[in-house]
Protein 1
Amino acid sequence: MATINSTGFWLATTERAVRTFAQTLIAALGLDAADVLALPWGRGLALAGIAAILSVVTSIATGTTGSSGPGITETANTVEGAAPQGLNR
């Protein structure tokens, strides 16, 4: 069972939040560039920030659900300071 007190869990959670932030910002600004959605930089950054916060909340909420990572299918390396692993296969 996962523990949210481990370094591996927080490394994986941080990686997920950064990925979510970048994906949301690129999507929002891409929609603006394609004239699908009029969104200034400030609002795009705010949207990406909220998505990253929700990603962290989701990681914490699912952090104790059977696997050893911040998500239901992800695993976090249990070695202190080690990088997180990918999806279980």
Note: The chain has a mean pLDDT of 78.
Protein 2
Amino acid sequence: MKVKNVESYLTELKKLDENFNSTAETLNEITNKFCVSSLFDEIIDDETWISQIASKSYHHNNGFEKLTVFSGSNYNLRIHIYWNNIKQSKPNIHDHRWNFSSKILSGGYISELYEIVDKGIEKQMYLYYSQEKLDGKYSLYNKGKVFLKKLKLGNTINPM
């Protein structure tokens, strides 16, 4: 069963790199070692896995479906599905508080990079924080108004 093999593989990788610091390498190893389409076929045929994935999945405000396929104490392996016919009304300029890597399976993606400047696009800036990280919950702290300038269009990312 490939699904169980991926879980075992992630557990072993975690032992080698407790924080998955090399997320791009980890993701490349997974996609090279396991046939992603046959893995999906296996998951689709397993009602227990589908139920687990559905319980941790939702439509994200940034216009994509967010599916958590595997998760552990310090990692999540997610699939983001961007449908062609769904447009995001306003871009949500943001960063992440964790290391992550992406692999495009189909289609492409254009990232945009911004910097904080004296005059530009006005936004509110928030920081995630946790005093004790109780129950895995974080709070938002509003740092106030900032101005952003688009540096450039980032890389166009194409499928593997």
Note: The chain is about 30% helix and 35% strand.
